[in-house]
Amino acid sequence: MDKENIKYLRFYKNKKTDTVYWVDSPERIGEHLFTFDKRKIYNLFADYPHRMTKEEIAIFDKENPFWADFFKDRRK
């Protein structure tokens, strides 16, 4: 995602204590986007867990147990 389009994104957390920000983008309907730093944005279905660091995976799984269970076969 280029810097010009980032200004149109809305970042939010499910809980105040979460590290993961979920991303709403008016141009990307139906995608589940998330980020840790509001710069590098991941697509849940395309990037998890292959394009993430071990630390990012651990944080994501802890904060999002539903998705960790949903994708458990990808981590074998």
Task: List the defining traits of the structure above.
4-stranded antiparallel β-sheet; 76 residues; 4 helices; alpha+beta
Can you give a write-up of this model?
With 76 residues, the chain is an alpha+beta fold. It has one domain. 32% of the residues lie in helices and 17% in strands. It is built from four helices and four strands; from the N terminus they run H-E-E-E-E-H-H-H. The protein has helices spanning 3-6, 44-47, 54-63, 65-70, and strands at 10-12, 21-24, 33-35, 41-43. The chain has a four-stranded antiparallel beta sheet with strand order 1-2-3-4. Strand 1 and strand 2 form a beta hairpin. The model has no long low-confidence stretch (mean pLDDT 90).
Q: How many strands, what sense, and barrel or not for the largest sheet?
A: 4 strands, antiparallel
Question: Strand fraction band?
Answer: 15-25%
Radius of gyration: 12 Å
Please provide the count of β strands.
Answer: 4
Number of domains: 1
Major beta sheet, strand line-up? 1-2-3-4
Give the helix/strand class: alpha+beta
- Unreliable runs: none
| Average of pLDDT | 90
What is the string of helix and strand elements? HEEEEHHH
The backbone outline, from C-alpha atoms, is globular
The termini sit apart by: 29 Å
Quick structural overview:
This protein has four helices and four strands, in the order H-E-E-E-E-H-H-H. By secondary structure, it is α+β, with helices and mostly antiparallel strands.
Set out the fold topology:
Blueprint: H1 3-6, E1 10-12, E2 21-24, E3 33-35, E4 41-43, H2 44-47, H3 54-63, H4 65-70
